[in-house]
Design brief:
The strands form two sheets. Strands 1-2-3 form a three-stranded antiparallel sheet. A two-stranded antiparallel sheet has the order 4-5. A hairpin with a 2-residue loop joins strand 1 and strand 2. It starts with 6 loop residues before the first helix and ends with a helix. By secondary structure, the protein is mainly alpha-helical. Helix 4 packs across helix 10 and helix 7 packs parallel to helix 10. It has a single domain, classed as yeast vps74-n-term truncation variant fold (Orthogonal Bundle).
């Protein structure tokens, strides 16, 4: 069941609390989610990283509206861009809402409107069916415990969590050497490595900016 999810769906489920809150700040979440889309498309062979430039190599429908939309957006861009540029371009609230909506459609999350101070409205996505996430977590844990070899899907998921500083928060103490091997060693997909490096850079930069803003306002 875990690998019936797309990589961005898996990333979203793991970093969404049962009550619909994000487990990390919005900037890291959005950067990771954008990277998850690129990683998924790279694993499917829909896009390639030709000299770190993202290019569409197979525009066939994937069966997922979010992935297909991103392929169309990349194809429509006249000038090939680096993965880091796409992480920044795609990592917005719209992508977050689109992936969440796909999970609502599958019956895994539900959509809930919230109003703050009677003025500001927002949408959260509480958990509706936690079984697929439990299966996903079990699959990831088997890999992190060394009981199973990672598939490209689980390797990408683990690498995305690591790149956004979320892996240990979600799964506790992990074998650093094993994680290194999964994210950049023998198990890492060459098609995904560059994306992951750019996510990590973008996420770290976002964290620094957020920390600086918090310090300036205190």
């Amino acid at each position: 069941m875990a690998e019936q999810l797309t990589v961005p769906q898996a990333f979203t489920l793991l970093l969404t609390e049962p009550d619909g809150r994000r487990a990390v700040d919005a900037q890291r979440f959005d950067s990771g989610l954008a990277g998850a889309v690129l990683a998924d498309l790279a694993l499917r062979g829909a896009v390639s990283l030709d000299g770190k430039l993202v290019r569409v190599v197979d525009g066939s429908a994937t069966g997922d509206a979010v992935l297909d939309s991103v392929v169309g957006t990349i194809a429509a861009t006249g000038t090939p861009r680096k993965a880091k540029w796409w992480v920044s371009k795609l990592g917005k609230r719209q992508l977050r809402d689109d992936v969440a909506a796909s999970l609502v459609e599958r019956g895994l999350l539900t959509s809930q409107q919230r109003t703050t101070l009677g003025i500001f409205s927002s949408t959260s996505y509480p958990e509706l069916d936690g079984r697929p996430e439990m299966t996903l977590r079990s699959t990831v844990l088997e890999v992190l415990d060394g009981r199973a070899a990672p598939t490209p899907f689980t390797a990408a998921t683990i690498a995305l969590l690591e790149a956004t500083g979320s892996l240990r928060r979600q799964f506790g103490k992990v074998d650093k050497a094993l994680v290194q091997d999964i994210t950049s060693g023998t198990w890492a997909s060459p098609a995904v490595k560059g994306v992951l490096q750019d996510i990590q850079t973008t996420a770290v930069m976002a964290g620094v900016i957020a920390a600086s803003a918090a310090t300036a306002s205190s």
